[in-house]
Design goal:
alpha+beta, Phenylalanyl-tRNA Synthetase, Chain B, domain 1, two-stranded antiparallel ribbon, two-stranded antiparallel sheet, 16% helix, globular
Length: 154
């Protein structure tokens, strides 16, 4: 969000609010990055997307559908994703939530055999610097908005 301040002709203070331009980031499939989740609101920028930038030191670029095993593993490595932390606008996660997780911690879970399923269309291509596409594809759970699209045409 961008806020601009100024004065009108009468000298009164005025302001306008404009939403920031969407980031032109791409997913690991080479297409525009799709939203990961809004309930709870995810993303390093809390915009629902796994967008990244220089300030995102952890590379929150993988859109994961968290499982109980994944959450337990994260807690065991010091990354408690289950406990709410309102000061960081973090509600705490439950199995089934979609969340932009860090590339490093997802890779640790992958190595431990408890990687969370991944939504490739909502996973940022920046992750490919740290995690191979084949590892992400092994855990892909992308489904169309209309599950009927999975049925063969008659």
């Amino acid at each position: 969000m961008r806020v601009r301040f100024g004065r009108d002709r009468a000298g009164r203070l005025r302001y306008s609010v404009a939403m920031a331009e969407p980031r032109a980031e791409r997913n690991v499939l080479g297409r525009p990055l799709e939203p990961c989740g809004t309930d709870p609101m995810t993303g390093f920028f809390r915009d629902g997307c796994c967008a990244t930038g220089p300030e995102d030191q952890g590379s929150h670029t993988i859109c994961a559908v968290v499982s109980a095993e994944f959450l337990a593993h994260q807690r065991s490595i010091g990354n408690d994703l289950s406990t709410p932390m309102p000061q960081y606008r973090f509600p705490g996660l439950v199995p089934g939530d979609r969340w932009c997780v860090t590339a490093r911690n997802w890779a640790l879970a992958y190595d431990a055999g408890v990687a969370a399923p991944v939504v490739l269309a909502a996973t940022n291509e920046a992750v490919l610097e740290l995690v191979p596409l084949t590892a992400l594809q092994q855990h892909a759970v992308d489904v169309p908005d209309d599950p009927g699209d999975l049925e063969e045409p008659s």
